[in-house]
Design brief:
The complex is a heterodimer of chains A (183) and B (787). Chain A has six helices and five strands, in the order ββαβββααααα. Chain A has a five-stranded mixed sheet, with helices on both faces. In chain A, strand 1 and strand 2 form a beta hairpin. Chain B has 787 residues and is an alpha+beta fold. Helix content of chain B is 26%, strand content 23%. Chain B starts with a helix and ends with a helix. Classes of the chains: A alpha+beta (183), B alpha+beta (787).
Chain lengths: 183, 787
């Protein structure tokens, strides 16, 4: 048996060690937002964060990820809460998720879990990305472009810019709160 | 409220009817004995009107489990039900709620729940297409009947005439007397028998009849608002159960080993290595070979291995994708299927003209290419087969599953879930995996989940038909079109046979034939691109159909199966027409936008063309551009225009592109879309749909072509079937400019999807001075066009 760190929790895994993380997440651990799209790392529907870096869970044997922090879309709100030291709030979404709602980004939505993971990776290193930064992140920074068949790409761009706005606003608020509490 | 609670409540109802006639629907009041009283208005279908004509009753709408279209609770919250599904358009969660709320005169937020697409929990059946064209009329009429019934009851309660009762924002009033929907019906259950026709499990499902008075459009206050889609939040937060997420105890995972070619039969299935794959077995039903395992990844690995040792006969019977255009142009005889002329055909197209052009155009096969390959789970319990899937036409799928297994439709239930958009592929029920799951569950007597792999979805699903078109345009001395002649030739629109049923040798409906009475399943090629240039006096448009390519030659009757996609057939026919219009304008030295303006009569077209001219920054001049040339490695700029009439909606598009002749790379820089779709139900959702639909069109124009050799489809993944990427996305400006007098709800994304290809090839000609008469604009085809 192996233990993985998924969304801040230790999870025991029984699968054979060559099993790709995607099948472990969905089949054994009931973490369902990473989706099966191609099984070839060609589309990005299965993306998760590994220590903050986007990987394609459909090709990574889970046994190679022991000791790594894995984050899926289910874990994004808690990740944000921890990063900003925010109080518990079960209704809170990560700024990227909130932006996706505000901008009505998804059409069918199947690719959006991977899109939101990639957007989170981008915004954590670059809180105010340009259109070119977004193009690079979504097209050429990973093993393949992140694909959306509904072609909701324009909405995804709007979503990322909106998320950057939310992050900037919330960061100001939380910095202010911290400053106040230090006084 | 659960179905069981409803049933309990209904059991307690003592029938003491005092019937009332509500515009042809029969209103029945019954004393309500006990119970929570939450089932307030039940709009049961009248058994004499519906079930007599409906083949199915078990696990469907019937007396013991009455399905309601609209369910109003004591707290005034409302549930609506539709047999249609959502594929990302959002219409059933946004526009449908707005339209029903409008008719009921209640706040849209009161409609807290939409139940959709489950055959045992929704009333009407039919396919998910034309949602705002015709389909929403069912719920809209039911809402109107309900409102009228409630007005009649309120009048009785208030002791006033019906005409004195008004409803605003959910408040029902007459003078100082006030009540609500909940109040009116809280002491009694109402059953309103509304007239319906059609058959539940047929392609178009049931239709609500009668003419209840509909709310005047001038009084609309909810339709037209940018209501957000309530399912976005549960989707992005991870709460939504997607089709691939459904699990049931004891289920097995299956991978199907599809035949080596589209005409192969099984010689011998490979064997399982039980040491390596202890939980795996191979199931063979004629030519359907599946690997099933309790462990999903074991099934994946075992299937890969067993696939390599499974032996199939070889077959060759396809013209190859490289030879397809020539096949359609010169080799097909076009004698099997009678040609079809369009309604626009008139005058004498052989009349002499000063100038003329005649060219061939070509659109290849396209894949629906959902990001998630088709997946379904089937289980058999107490003789009832339930298929958990993602379908645009669940009741028609129910028919197909029952037919395939030789079961009664009563014994089949289809449950639907959120899933990857596949743009029409399942509007005849199946997308690929449903029937295979049902066959395996039926055979093994355990629940079976069939997940197609990427290559299965590319190679074994249906595709959008290819088309060859010949367009001849004659022009008079004054630069006007004197004659227009189009001959469109290609395979049929739609084959709704489930593939697993074909492979297993089980019963299906027929593939497209020349004599099929149902147009969707007829092999004849109709003209789907509505004629718009009414100033032209001599017009002839002909569609020439054929059998599906390779189907007759294939020993298993498969071949290249066709299926409608997004803007079916109109995409394929608008492309050549509008591309030729661009060339005709250039031939007489006229601006392409102005040339269209001179040939339309409809003021709504003239209005959107004028708007397009302004909004796109159009420079009025003939093509090609002064900078045009066909060589060199500089990026050359050009712009093109196209128009379309679809679903009573008027659309125009301008594309600005660059072409690099030496690399053959075409980039789309910006697109301006102007639409007058009719009544805009939800501008926010329409904008997002149009924007994405248009970008999918850019994807088809730049990249997409199904590759196949003599036996099989060779597009297997996202490298061999590339689609648009983020870095290639142009700026898209959507301008919604509805005609204020429109009486019909505007549809969304289809026209936006289909228009863009012809505007891009117009821009290509403008940039280079050379026409390109086929898509996609991949570098190899671009270089050929420029040579």
């Amino acid at each position: 048996m192996t233990t993985l760190m998924i969304n801040g929790e230790k999870r025991k895994v029984n699968a054979s060690p060559d099993t790709p993380l995607l099948y472990v997440l969905r089949g054994e651990l009931n973490v369902m937002t990473p989706k099966f799209g191609c099984g070839l790392a060609q589309c990005g529907a299965c993306s998760v964060l590994m220590d903050g870096e986007e990987i394609r869970s459909c090709i990574y044997p889970f046994a190679s990820l022991v000791g790594k922090e894995i984050t899926t879309v289910e874990g994004l709100p808690a990740r944000w809460q921890k990063q900003k030291n925010l109080p518990d709030d079960s209704e809170r979404l990560h700024p990227v998720q909130q932006a996706w709602v505000d901008e009505q980004v998804p059409q069918c939505g199947i690719c959006q879990f991977g899109m939101m993971i990639k957007a989170t990776e981008l915004l954590e290193s670059n809180p105010r990305p340009s259109d070119d930064d977004i193009n690079t992140a979504m097209t050429s920074s990973g093993p393949s472009p992140h694909l959306c068949r509904c072609a909701s790409y324009a909405a995804i761009k709007d979503g990322i810019h909106r998320a950057a706005d939310i992050i900037a606003t919330e960061s100001k608020t939380s910095n202010l709160k911290q400053a106040v509490s230090h006084e | 409220m659960s179905e069981l609670q409803q049933k309990d409540d209904m059991d307690k109802i003592k029938v003491s009817p005092t019937d009332m006639n509500i515009h042809g629907a029969k209103l029945t009041r019954r004393g309500f004995l006990g119970g929570a009283g939450t089932l307030m208005v039940s709009l049961a279908l009248n058994p004499t009107l519906s079930f007599a004509k409906t083949k199915s009753s078990g696990h469907s709408l019937n007396a013991t489990l009455p399905a309601s279209w609209i369910e109003i609770h004591a707290d005034n919250s409302v549930v609506i039900r539709t047999g249609k599904c959502d594929f990302g358009q959002s219409s059933i969660y946004t526009a449908y709620r707005q339209i029903v709320a409008e008719e009921l005169c209640i706040p849209v937020e009161s409609i807290t729940s939409v139940i959709s697409g489950d055959t045992d929990r929704t009333p009407d059946g039919g396919g998910t297409f034309g949602l705002l064209r015709t389909n929403v009329l069912n719920l809209r009429k039911v809402a109107a009947y309900t409102r009228e019934a409630v007005i009649a009851l309120s009048a009785e309660k208030f002791g006033v005439k019906k005409e004195e009762v008004t409803i605003k924002n959910g408040v029902i009033s007459a003078g100082t007397k006030k009540t609500s929907y909940g109040d009116v019906v809280s002491k009694q259950a109402l059953s309103l028998d509304i007239p319906v026709s059609g058959e539940l499990t047929e392609f178009r499902g049931l239709v609500v009849d009668g003419e209840p008075p509909l709310k005047a459009i001038s009084e609309y206050s909810i339709v037209g608002k940018p209501v957000k889609n309530p399912i976005v939040r549960p989707k992005v937060s991870g709460e939504t159960t997607w089709v691939g997420d459904v699990k049931v105890p004891g289920m097995l995972h299956a991978r199907v080993i599809h035949p080596a070619t589209l005409g192969s039969t099984l010689i011998e299935a490979g064997k399982v290595n039980k040491t390596k794959y202890p939980n795996t077995q191979v199931v063979v039903v004629k030519n359907l070979v599946a690997v099933v395992s309790s462990d999903e990844y074991e099934a994946v690995k075992a299937a890969r291995e067993i696939s390599s040792t499974t032996k199939w006969t070889q077959w060759e019977g396809l013209p190859t994708s490289e030879g397809l255009e020539e096949q359609l142009k010169t080799k097909e005889k076009w004698t099997d299927v009678p040609p079809i002329k369009s309604g626009a055909t008139k005058g004498d197209v052989n009349a002499k003209s000063a100038k003329s052009l005649q060219h061939d155009y070509f659109v290849p096969f396209h894949k629906h290419a959902p990001i998630g390959p088709t997946v379904s789970l089937a289980e058999v319990k107490k003789g009832v087969i339930t298929v958990h899937t993602h379908s645009q036409n669940p009741q028609y799928l129910r028919m197909a599953i029952a037919k395939m297994l030789g079961e009664k439709e009563d014994n089949v239930v289809i449950r639907t879930y959120a899933g990857p958009g596949h743009f029409g592929r399942s509007n005849g029920g199946n997308a690929g995996s449903e029937d295979e799951a049902a066959i395996l569950a039926h055979t093994l007597k355990v629940p079976v989940r069939v997940q197609w792999m990427r290559h299965d979805d590319m190679q074994w699903s249906t595709q959008s038909s290819a088309m060859h078109s010949n367009i001849r345009i004659g022009l008079s001395d004054d630069g006007k079109i004197a004659t227009y002649q189009a001959v469109h030739s290609g395979p049929p629109m739609q084959d709704d046979r489930p593939i697993g049923a074909i492979l297993a040798g089980l019963d299906t409906i027929s593939p497209p034939t020349p004599d099929n009475p149902f147009r969707v399943h007829n092999a004849g090629l109709f003209i789907a691109d509505t004629w718009v240039y009414e100033q032209v006096e001599n017009v002839a448009e002909t569609g020439r159909g054929m059998f599906q390519i390779g189907q007759h030659e294939s020993p298993i009757g498969v071949g290249l199966r066709d299926h409608s996609m997004r803007t079916p057939i109109q995409f394929q026919q608008n492309f050549p027409r509008e591309a030729a219009m661009n060339e005709a304008a250039a031939l007489v030295g006229k601006d392409a936008l102005q040339f269209r303006m001179e040939h339309v009569k409809e003021p709504r077209f003239k209005a959107i063309l004028e708007t397009l001219r302004n909004e796109s920054g159009w420079d009025t001049r003939p093509s090609p551009a002064k900078t045009a040339k066909s060589d060199g490695d500089q990026e050359l700029r050009g712009r093109g225009v196209s128009i379309m009439l679809r679903d009573n909606g008027y659309w125009a598009c301008a594309s600005h592109i660059t072409v690099n002749p030496s690399s053959g790379v075409v980039k789309v820089e910006r697109i301006t879309l102007v639409c007058d779709p009719g009544i805009v139900v939800n501008p926010l959702q329409l904008k997002r749909q149009a924007e994405a639909g248009c970008l999918m069109g850019v994807s088809q124009t730049l990249h997409e072509e199904v590759a196949f050799d003599k036996g099989k489809i060779t597009s297997m993944d996202w490298f061999s079937y590339p689609i648009l990427k983020m870095a290639e996305v142009p700026t898209v400006k959507v301008v919604i400019a509805p005609d204020k007098t429109a009486k019909i709800y505007g549809q969304g994304s289809e026209s936006a999807n289909a228009l863009v290809a012809s505007s891009i090839v117009g821009a290509f000609y403008d940039a280079t001075g050379k026409p390109i008469r086929r898509i996609p604009l991949r570098p190899n085809y671009v270089k050929q066009a420029l040579a």
